[in-house]
Design brief:
Blueprint: E1 6-8, E2 11-13, E3 21-25, E4 29-30, H1 32-35, E5 41-42, H2 45-57, E6 62-65, H3 75-85, E7 88-93, H4 103-107, H5 110-122, E8 134-140, H6 147-163, E9 167-171, H7 177-186, E10 194-196, H8 205-213, E11 217-220, H9 231-243, E12 250-252, H10 273-283, H11 288-303
Length: 305
């Protein structure tokens, strides 16, 4: 068996080469086809490069791009952007959540869906040779997992077990991450390979602790989304988890997926985590070593397989 590698759109790299990493972002995506809101489409590669260079200039080295098959994922576009910015980009496989699913999700078996994900993880997307490096974001739309979402989640679990790739979820505004974890446990997934996303949209300590005690990762990944929570509340909750000794199971990101998220449109940009939010959590007692662990060491551990 070979050594664990991080699988990026430009090929596999040693974990040590990864650097400072945002764990849940979108660079090229299309939510507009479902939402009907033109703000919800990112399809300008030149603009993406401009925005990501601001992140690189602020100290960023890598990001995980969690746009799934049903959200307009563009493997070759991501590779071009990675080459132009010299940022490592880890690409996703899987399906997002039920309102976005194509008909194949309802028609295919769980094992067939798993097979499609495994192929993208091990061989690449279509004939591009560009391999996915993470499963997800695998989502729940509301406070429960629908039958189709459960099908996708079980397929993602089987793909995870077959490959060892990390699995990341969408669990927004409700404590539905615990429901996701129960389904994944039924599929015998190692919870240490599971990231529960959007934990900062439901700032209840008991929820976070239940995820952590199960062995999974708590991800605060909507930094800068003030309509979900002010960043001050996020920083308070995040620093409290660090002080409680959970540093090795924490991840950060900003989930840029709207045009209004970008600097060009007056938004906080991809660099908000490593600039404003970093200052916020460090002013609340998070040390430089703890910050380094969360932004560099933790992504290396979860993304290597």
């Amino acid at each position: 068996m070979g050594c664990a590698r991080v699988h990026t759109v430009r090929g596999a790299i040693a974990p040590e080469a990864l650097g400072c990493t945002l764990m849940h972002e979108h660079v090229l995506c299309d939510f507009y086809r479902v939402t009907g809101n033109l703000d919800h489409i990112l399809n300008d590669e030149d603009l993406a490069v401009e925005e990501l260079l601001a992140y690189r200039d602020a100290g960023g080295d890598a990001l995980v791009e969690v746009t799934t098959r049903d959200l307009g994922r563009d493997a070759e576009g991501l590779r071009r952007i990675s080459e132009r910015t010299d940022l490592h980009i880890v690409m996703a496989t899987g399906w997002y959540r039920q309102p976005y699913y194509p008909p194949e999700v309802d028609r295919a078996s769980v094992d067939r869906l798993a097979e499609l994900m495994i192929r993208e993880l091990t061989e690449g997307v279509g004939d591009t040779g560009i391999r996915a490096g993470i499963i997800g974001e695998i989502g729940a739309s509301l406070d429960h997992v629908t039958a189709q979402e459960e099908r996708v989640l079980r397929a993602a679990a089987r793909a995870q077990r077959a490959t060892g790739a990390p699995l990341t979820t969408h669990a927004s505004m409700y404590p539905v991450g615990l429901v996701q974890l129960e389904i994944l446990k039924e599929e015998h997934v190692d919870c240490s390979r599971v990231i529960i996303g959007h934990c900062d949209t439901y700032l209840h300590p008991d929820y976070h602790l239940a995820i952590l005690r199960a062995g999974a990762w708590v991800q605060f990944d909507t930094v800068g989304r003030r309509h979900m929570n002010p960043d001050g509340r996020r920083a308070d909750a995040f620093a409290a988890l660090v002080r409680a000794g959970w540093t090795r199971q924490l991840l950060l990101s900003s989930d840029r997926c709207y045009r209004s998220d970008l600097h060009a449109f007056g938004g906080a940009g991809y660099d908000v985590v490593v600039t404003e939010f970093r200052e916020m959590v460090q002013s609340r007692g998070v040390s430089e070593a703890e910050w380094e662990a969360i932004m560099v060491e933790n992504p290396r551990r979860i993304l290597a397989w």
